[in-house]
Specification:
The protein is built from 5 helices and 16 strands. By secondary structure, it is of the alpha+beta class. The strands form 4 sheets. A 5-stranded antiparallel sheet has the order 3-6-1-16-11, with no helix packed on it. Strands 7-13-12-10-14 form a 5-stranded antiparallel sheet. Strands 4-5-2-15 form a 4-stranded antiparallel sheet, with no helix packed on it. Helix 1 packs across helix 4, helix 2 packs across helix 4 and helix 3 packs across helix 4. It is globular, with a radius of gyration of 18 Å. The termini are close together.
Amino acid sequence: MRLHINHKTHYSYDQPVPYALQQIRLTPKSGQCQTIDNWDIKIEGGRTECAFDDQHGNRVHLISLNPGQTEIAITCSGDIDTIATAGVTGPHGGYTPLWYFRRQTALTRPGKLIRKLASDLKENPDPIARLHELSASIREAIVYETDRTDSGTTAEEALRAGHGVCQDHAHAFVSAARLLNYPARYVSGYLMMDDRVFQEASHAWAEAHVPDLGWVGFDVSNVISPDERYVRIATGLDYDEAAPISGIVFGDSKESLLVSLQVQQ
């Protein structure tokens, strides 16, 4: 499947900003399930200071806001060819050792509820079936609701509240999978939805490393493994390591954000 993506993130401020620096991970990579035909990033109101690959192989751009600006816009667009692989993205590679993905973070650190959810899973010699059962259990425990959590909400907090979004589902899955001794990671990316072209945000899911298969994706929000409608952008231990955009702003300006995203064939 060939997907065309146009993603614009527009920040505006109520007064000139003396200094701001954004770290963006918005460059997908070719791999077993996707091939990047073309991809372009345009910056309005700022400039690229440098670009590098981080410890997960994500392409990172550091973007500064032009002094005195009140707006900055980041537009990404391109065409990507995808194939269905039942969620399998291939063997582990890159700079980071596999054992690193068993490490919990502040966002994924399990509490009593995550530990109980993991311990309640039945023993199953088939790791794929067991991980799908984990995905379904999380989806049942955390109802999908927007505007109830934020980027700082932990997996345990989302499970306690009983509601959240794809980010919370991914964190809970990663947390529990690590308790079950599976290396696991957070994935940020895009999903072509069946009922709309225009979307309000990008998507997130999780991957677990399974012996003899490699990394396998699990989209808890939709209770499936990613197929040809998905585009992977960045991976990390949690949202903080795979966030599409993060940064700092100096001064007292109030910030507003507008996102425009189109994913279509």
